[in-house]
C-alpha cells in the first residue's frame, strides 16, 4: 500500500487531465481577480503551509495583499483534483498563491506570515493533517525571492531550535505550475462560505527576529 507520507515518483503519479479546473472570476473577500491578468505593479508569491483553507485566510487578511487563491503545486499530475491530491499520488502540496502590492507589503513581510502561521519542522504533515499534500514549501519565482526565503529560514531556525523544535523541513524550490483548486476551496473560510469552518492551521507561537530577512522590498 502506498504511504501518504512518501512522495510519489513521476512514473507512479496519476495521469491527470488536459483540461484545467474552472476558476471563479473574482475573490470572495477582496473582489479581485483570481487568475491573471493581475493589476499592474503587483507581484506573486506562493507558499504551502498545511491545509490551504486557513493558510489562505492568513494572507488575505494581510494589508497590501491584493488577491489570494488556493491550488496545487510541486507535483507531477496535470490539473489534479482535490481527491487525487489527497491520495498522495500526484506529488502536489496544498498551496496559496498571493498577489501583492510591493509598495504596501514586502516579500519579507509575507515570509514572516508564512513562518509564523505554521510549524515548519513537521515534515509530511501539519498538526493532525498527515500526508505529502500538507508539507511546508516556498515556491520562489526569481533569485530575489530565493535569497529572501533562504535568509528568513536561516534566521528562523535558531529561534525554533531554542524553543525545542527540530530542523526546518520546508522545501525551498523554484515555482512550478500552479493548478487552481476547485471553486469550493477558494476563500473557503470567508464569511459567505464557511465562517466557522475547520482550520487545521497551527503555528509555533514564535516570531522571527525583527529585520532578520531584509533582502527585498
Record keyword descriptors for this entry.
217 residues, alpha+beta, Peptide Methionine Sulfoxide Reductase, Chain A, six-stranded mixed beta sheet, two-stranded antiparallel ribbon, 4 helices, 8 strands, 20% helix, disordered C terminus
Structural class: alpha+beta
- Number of structural domains: 1
Kindly report the spatial arrangement of strands forming the biggest sheet.
Answer: 7-6-1-3-2-8
- N→C terminal distance: 47 Å
Task: Based on Cα principal axes, name the global outline.
Answer: globular
Mean pLDDT: 93
Pfam families: PMSR
Catalytic activity: L-methionyl-[protein] + [thioredoxin]-disulfide + H2O = L-methionyl-(S)-S-oxide-[protein] + [thioredoxin]-dithiol; [thioredoxin]-disulfide + L-methionine + H2O = L-methionine (S)-S-oxide + [thioredoxin]-dithiol
Keywords: Oxidoreductase
Active site: 51
How would you describe this structure to a colleague?
Its EC number is 1.8.4.11. One of its GO terms (molecular function) is peptide-methionine (S)-S-oxide reductase activity. Keywords: Oxidoreductase. With 217 residues, this protein is an alpha+beta fold. It has helices spanning 52-60, 82-86, 107-116, 143-162; strands spanning 43-48, 65-73, 93-100, 125-126, 129-130, 137-140, 171-174, 179-180. The protein has one domain (21-185): Peptide Methionine Sulfoxide Reductase, Chain A (2-Layer Sandwich). It contains 4 helices and 8 strands, in the order βαβαβαβββαββ. The radius of gyration is 16 Å and the shape is globular. The model is unreliable at 210-217 (pLDDT under 50).
Amino acid at each position: 500500500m502506498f504511504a501518504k507520507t512518501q512522495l510519489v515518483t513521476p512514473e507512479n503519479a496519476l495521469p491527470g487531465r488536459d483540461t484545467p479546473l474552472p476558476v471563479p472570476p473574482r475573490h470572495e473577500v477582496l473582489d479581485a481577480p483570481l487568475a491573471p491578468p493581475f493589476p499592474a505593479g503587483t507581484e506573486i508569491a506562493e507558499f504551502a503551509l498545511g491545509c490551504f483553507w486557513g493558510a489562505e485566510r492568513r494572507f488575505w487578511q494581510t494589508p497590501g495583499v491584493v488577491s489570494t487563491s488556493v491550488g496545487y503545486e510541486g507535483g507531477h499530475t496535470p490539473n489534479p483534483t482535490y481527491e487525487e491530491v489527497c491520495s498522495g499520488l500526484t506529488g502536489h502540496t496544498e498551496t496559496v498563491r498571493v498577489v501583492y502590492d510591493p509598495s504596501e507589503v514586502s516579500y519579507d513581510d509575507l515570509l514572516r506570515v508564512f513562518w509564523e502561521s505554521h510549524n515548519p519542522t513537521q515534515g509530511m504533515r501539519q498538526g493532525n493533517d498527515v500526508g505529502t499534500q500538507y508539507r511546508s514549501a516556498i515556491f520562489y519565482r526569481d533569485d530575489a525571492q530565493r535569497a529572501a526565503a533562504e535568509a528568513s529560514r536561516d534566521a528562523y531556525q535558531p529561534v525554533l531550535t531554542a524553543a525545542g523544535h527540530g530542523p526546518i523541513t520546508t522545501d525551498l524550490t523554484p515555482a512550478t505550475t500552479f493548478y487552481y483548486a476547485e471553486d469550493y476551496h477558494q476563500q473557503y473560510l470567508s464569511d459567505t462560505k464557511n465562517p466557522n469552518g475547520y482550520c487545521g492551521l497551527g503555528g509555533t507561537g514564535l516570531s522571527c527576529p525583527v529585520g532578520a530577512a531584509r533582502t527585498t522590498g
